[in-house]
User: What shape does this take?
Amino acid sequence: MSLKSTCIKLLYSCLETLPAPFANKLKMMGNIAVHDWQMESFCMFDIREAMAEEQAKTLFDPHDEMTQHIVHQQYVLGKLYIPPEVKNCFFFHHRKELYFPFEGDVSQIKRSADTFKAQYGLTDVGPEVTYYHNGLYFLNEHERALISGKYIIDAGAYQGESVIALLEANPLRVIAFELSPKNYSKMEANLQRNHIPKERYELIPCGLGAVEEDICIDDTGEAITSRQNKGDLSCHITTIDTYTQHHPVPIGMIKADIEGDGLELIKGALATIRRDRPILSIAVYHRADEFLGIPKLLIDNNLGYRFILRSLSPFTTLGEIVLLGLPE
Assistant: This one.
């Protein structure tokens, strides 16, 4: 038994001598002091309402154990779903068994984050970029070769950190789309300050979706800024297919983390995906229609992809889950 466990056992014995209401309050305070309690919710949606678990598992590579584990874990967490309007009324004991499985050493992941932040002068950036490089970490040599010398679509480029990380794949250019004007300005300044060659990237100040349209957002300048944040700032949404129709360049990879609108982005990219068969790296932890709807849509369109899931963060129960679509 550890020293911590021994101390807790002795203190609990002492507390039993006190009046029950007072003892219970002290126990709760002590529990909070020695364990990891947070207000972050366990998951952002209840996947059980969308599809049965056994059916969901058929959408992904049945031979990839980690993928199947992640699907199961999402259903486990679905039982703990708290609606957004009341989630701030609760705080939770974040037990390790509730986290998604991940690859890599935690201390190494932390060191990579410190190194990346120091090198590029960035602060608000997580392991999904600094260590896993938006999914590039999981690609083999053949899959990386499908990206090299082609273009990468970076949807939700935020402040430019993903542009820097994706250049590791040696693309001809990264085409970075960012809906928020505030984030776009920061991205432009960050890339210039770090002397990233301008011929290696193109910045486009609009969002990506299923159709061409104008929307109004509240531009908070935060990572979670999206079309879900309704406001009075007019912004334009285009589609990947529209872009590639006017710029017929070979697309080797589509990376997207657009706060729940990944399915809409894929709907607007089907022609490009059918033509170029790029690697897909889509964040799917925001909504069930991303997690399940994207692989189902691509399967229904007979596009010949194998789908695996990976966690890009060991530091949150949300897991920064990414869907990797690998052309077969």
User: Anything to note?
Assistant: Residues 132 and 166 are 10 Å apart (CA to CA). The two ends are 51 Å apart (CA to CA). DSSP finds 14 helices and twelve strands in the chain. The first strand starts at residue 37 and ends at 38.
